[in-house]
Structures are given as C-alpha cells and as structure tokens.
Amino acid sequence: MAEIRVEKKKPVWPWLLLIVIIAVVAFLYFYGSTEDTDDMDDETIEEVTVIPTTYSSLEYEELV
Fold first, then answer.
1. Rounded to an integer, what is the distance from CA 51 to the centroid of its chain?
2. What's the rounded Cα separation, in Å, for the pair 9 and 18?
3. CA-CA distance, 61 to 64, in Å (whole number)?
4. pLDDT at residue 31, rounded to an integer
5. What is the block-wise mean pLDDT of the chain (64 residues), using blocks of 10 residues?
6. For residue 55, what are the contacts with CB-CB under 8 A and spacing of at least 6?
7. Are 36 and 28 in contact (CB under 8 A)?
8. Does residue 55 contact residue 63 with C-beta atoms inside 8 Å?
9. Which of 21, 28, 38, 60 has a beta carbon 3.0–4.6 Å from 32's, enabling a disulfide?
10. Residue 48: predicted pLDDT
11. CA 29, CA 24: separation in Å to the nearest integer?
12. pLDDT (0 to 100) of residue 17
C-alpha cells in the first residue's frame, strides 16, 4: 500500500498581520499628512501692492 504524505498548513496569521501593518502605514501616509501644518497666521500676512512694469500706450498717456 502507498503512503500518503500529510503536510501541515503554513500559518496564515503572519500574512494577515503584514497586510494590516501595510494598511495602517498607507492610511497614515495618505490621510495623516493632510493636516494643515502652516504656522503662519492670517493676521501676520501683509498685503503687498503690485506695481505693473509694462504699460500699454493708453495707460502710459494717462500717467503722463
């Protein structure tokens, strides 16, 4: 009579643990980095007047 080899199944839990760890790291990378890290307040920003450097001929005549 022939012998039948019986092999034990490899554990699945290390693969599940690896998948959970990768999912947590991906979540923290994509969603954890969306937090606003701008340290400047809106009150500290000063308004700057923009001075045009080129004028059309009509604008130049008005200035002179």
1. 35
2. 18
3. 5
4. 83
5. 87 95 93 63 70 63 58
6. 63
7. no
8. yes
9. 28
10. 75
11. 9
12. 97
Give the pLDDT score at 46.
Answer: 73
Q: What is the pLDDT of residue 34?
A: 62
In whole angstroms, give the CA distance from residue 13 to residue 21: 12
Output the DSSP codes for the chain: -------PPPPSHHHHHHHHHHHHHHHHHHHGGGS------GGGPPP-PPPPS---HHHHHHH-
Q: Which residues contact 63 (CB under 8 A, 6 or more apart)?
A: 55
Alpha carbons 23 and 15: distance in angstroms, whole number: 12
Q: Note the pTM of the prediction, 2 decimals.
A: 0.43
